[in-house]
Design brief:
The chain is of the alpha+beta class. Helices cover 46% and strands 12% of the residues. The protein is built from 18 helices and 10 strands. Strands 2-1-3-10-6 form a 5-stranded mixed sheet. A 3-stranded antiparallel sheet has the order 8-7-9. The N terminus is likely disordered.
Length: 439
């Protein structure tokens, strides 16, 4: 009887000794935004953990404005709370120059960085070195409901103007049916309402600063752009617009409440996916509208995965970041969710794939928009900065957020357009003076 008990005891001891001698898994803390493609990444990450049992993933998923605040504070203070950051092509070059990001060197042989789209790759490089890997890239476009246009006897041109968009919105708004002629970003934030408003100001001939870094907000061009935005949103936009950013407008359009929506090209894959969109068979698209000035800077954005120099798990982080942005990950998403749902705007191979071309009628349009995007293009009057929907200086994160709150106050009726422009001009001038501009 004693001999029968010894085997389980020895077996138990052997198991305990093996467990004690096994190396602990490396934990990675990943900060990411609550956009649809990143939620998919989180769900599919179990495949990564299965193939990399020595790495465990901890997720911090945040709303866009909160994410930006958290990761900026963390990296600026060197706190090291995160090992992987989801950041934009606004932050990457600025943070790389400050030595806050690890260069993306020593990538796996099969990663194929040359497959990355040129404009997107350049946006996350500094002095010719990659400092983050693109997860998805975007330009901007106009989405519209072709069924509502047909019913109203309207035709969307390939290259609409903002005057045409206003006319369409007035005719398509039916508030009694919960249908709004236009949905636009209203949630305050430099990357929320001000991303759209800045592109609107550009095409109405305005800019943030003149060539001598003098603030140029309280100007006729800004007044025309902001006046347009304020009027069309109040007449034809949904209620509570100051709560609506990219995700909220995506939900409104996908559920049938928007006749038109001007925003990121990344939404195309979500709106054409019948699993996520009630209007997948009714959506069509056109170029982003133009105002008085055409040919200026054009929208280019990418969400990227970067590694802060404060991370203590840099090699493990690089293993995950390369996994989540390589060709095999695109194929994994296609296998699980269909080709229409793969992260767009980063790899040439995605757009060359016949399965993607077949599933995504917008593919060629989006590729052309991203390939031809020019965030470094000139505004009507010369300017000293680059960026189409942001100003590529460190101070813009604070400036854009403050002005975004002022712009939102016009939609809520707390300020007139003139009052908002005057306040934004004064606040921005103070910030730029304190920062030492012109430099």
């Amino acid at each position: 009887m004693t001999s029968r008990l010894r085997l389980p005891v020895f077996s138990l001891l052997a198991t305990l000794l093996t467990a004690a001698s096994a190396p602990a898994a490396t934990p990675l803390t990943i900060a990411t935004v609550n956009n649809g493609d990143m939620i998919v990444m989180q769900h599919l990450a179990s495949a990564f953990e299965k193939s990399h049992p020595d790495i465990t993933l901890r997720w911090v998923v945040l709303e866009e404005n909160v994410l930006r605040q958290r990761v900026t504070t963390d990296i600026a203070t060197g706190a090291g709370q995160f090992d992987v950051l989801t950041i934009g092509n606004y932050e990457v070059p600025i943070w790389a120059k400050r030595g806050w990001l690890e260069p993306m060197e020593g990538l796996p042989a099969n990663y194929d960085a040359d497959d990355l789209l040129k404009t997107v790759r350049e946006g996350v490089s500094s002095d010719g070195r990659l400092y983050a890997l693109p997860f998805y890239g975007e330009s901007a476009m106009t989405y519209y409901r072709k069924d509502l246009f047909e019913k109203a006897g309207l035709t969307m041109p390939e290259k609409p103007t903002y005057d045409q968009i206003r006319g369409f919105a007035d005719k398509l708004t039916d508030k009694s049916q919960g249908t709004y002629g236009i949905c636009l970003r209203g949630k305050p934030g430099w990357g929320e309402n001000m991303a759209y408003v800045t592109s609107l100001v550009d095409t109405f001939g305005g800019q943030w600063f003149d060539k001598g870094w003098k603030t140029a907000i309280d100007t006729p061009e800004w007044k025309k752009a902001l006046g347009y935005y304020d009027e069309i949103m109040k007449a034809d936009g949904p209620p509570g617009a100051t709560s609506n950013g990219f995700n909220e407008n995506l939900a409104l359009f996908a559920s049938g409440h928007c006749a038109m929506w001007i925003d990121s090209t990344v939404a195309a894959g979500l709106l054409y996916d019948p699993k996520q969109s009630q209007v997948a068979d009714k959506v069509a698209f056109a170029q982003i509208p133009t105002g008085d000035f055409a040919g200026g800077p054009t929208w280019l954005w990418s969400w990227n995965l970067g590694i802060p120099t404060s991370s203590k798990q840099k090699e493990a982080a690089k293993t995950f970041v390369s996994w989540a942005t390589d060709k095999a990950y695109v194929e994994l998403v296609a296998k699980q969710n269909g080709w229409v749902a793969v992260p767009p705007g980063t790899r040439q191979s995605t757009y060359k794939n016949p399965d993607y071309q077949k599933a995504a009628p917008f593919a060629g349009f989006v590729l052309k928009a991203i390939d031809s995007s020019n965030p470094n293009g000139q505004t009507r009057e010369p300017r000293p900065y680059t960026g189409a929907q942001f100003v590529a200086i460190p101070e813009f994160q604070g400036i854009g957020t403050q002005v975004g709150q002022t712009v939102a106050a016009t939609l809520s009726g707390q300020q007139s357009v003139d009052q908002a422009l005057s306040a934004a001009q004064a606040a921005t001038q103070r910030t730029m003076k304190q920062a030492g501009y012109p430099k």
